[in-house]
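Just curious. Protein, please.
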Amino acid sequence: MSSLFLRFNKGEHMAFRTDILTWSKGDLMETYWKVFFKRQNTTSGWKRDLYTVFLNRSARKHGGYIGKDAYLASRLRLPHGLHGIYISRYAKIGKDCWVYQNVTIGEVNGKAPTIGDDCLIGAGAVLVGDITIGDRVKIGAGALVCQDVPSDSTVVSQPAKILPKKKEAE
């Protein structure tokens, strides 16, 4: 919040307006990420628990969930905020990944996906199980991924099927 006021004092009124609108929608997650990486790097049990309480409350406000033991190599790029995103506590995600709304990175029998660097996961995609997603992979909106994906690949879901309108005689 202090960076908002620094910009305003410098006379950048449009940047201030944009920041205020982003903050009011709940998409400004600077504090969330700072605390997330402090929790990820701490060894103290009680500090970890305290960070987890804050993160759980904040994630609930944003409408998403990132598991307490999930490993993120860097801050996720969330164009729509944390809205509808579920990331298992067993997931491992590389650097500079983009995750759109309503994505599920889930677990099966305590095992979750390992995602490489520079990946893009489209809206509504579901990744489950003990799978490995390579580097620079693009996963399309609505795709269900439950097998390994090699680096530099694109994954898309089934094409939409158009059902013809039933005739009255039928």
